[in-house]
Design a protein that fits this description.
By secondary structure, the protein is an alpha/beta fold. It is built from 12 helices and 15 strands.
Length: 346
Amino acid sequence: MESTPETHAPIYQRLFERFREDITAFRLPPGAQIDSITELQSKYRVGRETAKRVLGMLADEGYIVQLRGKGSFVADLRPRQKVWGLIFPFYSIQYEELITEITGHATAHGRTLQHFCNYNSYEEEIRLVSKMLRERYEAVVVIPTLDESKTWNSFYSRLPTAESSVVLLDHTMISSDFRFVVQSYDLGVTRALQYLLEQKPGGVAFVENELWAGRNMVLELMRGTCLEHLRVNRPDPPPLLLSRASLIHADLLRRHGITGVFCCDDTSAIQVIGQLREQGMPIPGEVNVVSYGNTGLARYFSPPITSVDPHNREMASILSDLLTGNNRKPSERQFVVQPELIVRGT
């Protein structure tokens, strides 16, 4: 085992940490046999006592089980907890409503829901999923980060096939062998843009949410769909891309010939409408506004906001069926939820 200038820990500690990381990241799944003392000696060029000490430390920490005459195996001894873990990449009002819906299903099945935000970090996502699996959560539900290829190649693809408790939720299409529930963001954006283009001639502004941490798949998918749809259906005037709602201004929209505004969430839409009203721009008189989410903010705002409904209730219901085995077709493992445009007063 090679050392680096930065690494000064004893070799037994480094070997212990390497095996621990492989186990917690499920590169070594429960039940997998790990190297014997002799194999450790040969592979890492260490003495017998060092190899024996590494296996002893792993056993003492509960990472492996040593069976006399058979070898050492990755441990998986505890019964499953009646807990569903939910990991999401960043906060949004839409995810808040989705969590509420999932909580209702978990409670109805006598389960507890614990949710965690990973701040759009694929490393933190892997750490949290690994921790929940080690702690024997009954189910782990993940809304993945943008770095999907990294989490899939280094983690999800290595999960044992028997580990059926992980479900990928919302905006991902990973593998035909994995379970997921996904909403069709591209269809939702397309329906919103079609509506805006039907209302008035002119361009469209796309407003992002700056609080959604870093790069993320939701924004990139929405933005890409928006640009492609407008390129084909209304290339002139060109779309206006705004990284946050506070950048919008009536004079800016008029200067660019903008008559439609698409906001990637309801919170941004409320801010946009408030600012434009304050600047004397009538809505929907001079410009139409559409948001994505159809949360309570859109439904109860005055006037109520035209918004894309991602059908969080349907997503939560399908997820619950997957986790409890109640889906009518057990062979089905992947579901796409179709969003719907709810036309209201903007």
